[in-house]
Amino acid sequence: MNKDSDYIQAAPAKNNATEIPVLLRQIKDNSASILLAHLENLFSSCDDLFFDLSSRAATNSEQNLYFESMREVRLKKHGVIAAFKSEIETGFHQIASAAQTSTPSSDLDNIADDHTSLSLVQNDILEQDVAIASMVSKARVNCQESLYHLNLRFDYLMPNTAITDQNNPMDPQQICRYFADACKMLDLNIKARIILFKQFDRLLISKLATVYSSANNLLVEAGVLPNTRSYANNKNQGNSETPAQRSTGTQQNQNIEFEFAELSNLLSSLRQQNPAAIESLIPNYTAYSRNTGPTVSNDDLLQLLTTIQQTIAPPPANKELQLAESLRQVIGSILSEAGDAPDKALQQPDDDVINLVAMFFDFVLDDNNLPVAVQALISRLQIPILKVALNDKKFFSKSSHPARRLINAIAEASIGWDESSQLQRDRLFSLMTAITQDINENYNNSDQIFIDKLNELEKFIQQTEHKSALIEKRIGQAAEGQARTKLARLMSQKVMFEKLETAELPEKISDFLTRHWLNLLIMSHLKHGEESSEWIDATQLIDDLIWASQAHNDAKSQSRYQKIKPGLLNRINEGMTQIAATREAAEDCINSLEKTLDELHTSGHSDIQMRPLSTSQAEVLGHTPGSGSKSWQQMTGVERQQARYKQLTYEYIRKAEQLPLQTWLSFEDAKTGKVTRCKLASRIESSDSYVFVNRFGFKAIERLRKDFACDMQAGRITILERGNLFDRAMGNVLNSLNNNQSTKAS
What we know:
Layout (H helix, E strand, L loop, with lengths): L4 H4 L13 H34 L4 H37 L10 H8 L8 H20 L1 H14 L14 H11 L7 H14 L4 H14 L7 H10 L4 H6 L11 H12 L3 H7 L13 E2 L1 H12 L17 H9 L9 E2 L1 H19 L5 H8 L2 H10 L10 H12 L13 H16 L5 H53 L4 E2 H22 L4 H16 L6 H24 L4 H18 L9 E2 L3 H6 L16 H9 L4 H9 L5 E5 L6 E10 L4 E5 L5 E6 H9 L3 E3 L5 H21 L1
Parallel strand pairs: 1-2
Antiparallel strand pairs: 3-4, 5-6, 5-9, 6-7, 7-8
Helix pairs in contact: 2-3, 2-8, 2-9, 3-7, 5-7, 5-8, 5-28, 6-9, 12-16, 12-30, 14-18, 16-18, 16-30, 19-21, 20-21, 21-22, 21-23, 22-23, 23-24, 24-25, 28-29
């Protein structure tokens, strides 16, 4: 007979020659002791759970499955624990190595490469991978702040190794990978393996916040970054993403400074290309300084722009907002002369500023992240923004300039608009329209108007976001409650249907079970869960009542019936009380059941008719006759096409799992073609669904995770960028100009 020690050698023997710093070793030992204690508890719980599941198994094969799983876990649990501990040791040694230049990618990261489609992946492998990815995603959200601080403190301790979520040995992804690798020695059916991983999630992963808190406290007491803010700011100067942003995928606004001298040099290099090459790199680029007419001074150009700016009329009421006249057309009209006279020229710096600002607005008008109405609104600020840049050539390098911040605020606030928005009735859109018009009418050379309007807009946004956050929270709570209720109903219906599907019962008893006892099952599942004694007792009563409803004429069965009858009726009475049945209704129900049972067990012939579930009762239990899935041969051509279409590659399942909360996206309805802008507000674990809300916080869409991944694969989902509009646009301009340099060099 194999002993536990036979399996301990399965733990990977690794050469961990690198010495771990004392403080890091203390973190390792402390964290490992906590995790291993939880792992011991996990195996004890699984032993009880598998035994309980085997006792409730409906078939011999299912019972054998759970018994074999229980035996396998008992025999090899010490080997799994040893392997898990060894994996933790290895993870800490890897980050302790100063020579470590790259982090070994985790199994989770390689899944998409190893398994490109469902047709290439065994279902059990995919099911396990999805379960692990779900655990990681949930744990990172729940422990976001403490994990962020731990990443920073580890990074501070290890100056030669950049600590990220991909190599931090205490990150949920690594811990799940350690456990998955350790469990490879267990010969378990996928059904039992998934149960094991669920227990791992419930009894260990859910406790990670305590582990992280303990590690952070130990580091703080040792004087390691008591305040992480200054260290994070210093890191961000060289890296725009913090470890927390990398671990959660949260997209933050970035302020980027662009030196005008650098941009001007790139434009100078561009002008040396032939016209065709220039047009291919920057469409509509115009060299105003090459005009042969008289040169317009900077002051005169500003005055001419002010004259045009003040003639911009307010947008017409109750009509669609139109794009403003192109900036290049405005400049062209200013520089044009009557008759055959050559167009006036501009000074080279003014020429560069105009082209840079025009390129910025070209990007704005091509940015699909912005609704068309907001593109038109921002386009009305072309002349004021151009005047700001002409007045101050350092405008591009001032990330804190109020004009830049105002444009960014408008774009950020409007990301949730969709084509169905009633813009003229929208308070925020009306305010932004008034702001742009006020700037056109009153801006001269002072930036104070941008400061005032920015403050006005931010105050309004703060008020509305507070309201929408409250609504969003309530929507999430309501969705969670509905999902839990739906899951409880589905599980209760499933259990009862499986027990009654092949049984023949008196009509009064089957009516009682499908009308009253079903509600008790739902309530027990909601309050206590399917692993509780209350749930087990409620489901066991169904079996007891089915047995008692059969005509047993032998003396042994009659004796057993008389023995269990009082307890059976008492349990039914207690159940009726729990579902708030009136005393009269409960007594009538129990008397009717007792009378029916006694009649079935009398020695004489009973006239009670035994029959299977009726169609209406089956429907109450969620079963519609003929609703089962068809085989491939039974499917029509259209059904086969739909089945192929729903096959998901793991890449999109993984993308759906890793999509950060608060991500904005546009969703195209497959049937109507309507496009809705919404953000991911919450993931409902119990129903495996995602809830999306509009910009007011109200629920817009709710999709099952698998359906959402299918939408992503079909191209109906577009992730919207929330980074600062000005910085994204100027970054695009800079890339275009740098591409010219690369082309020229090659």
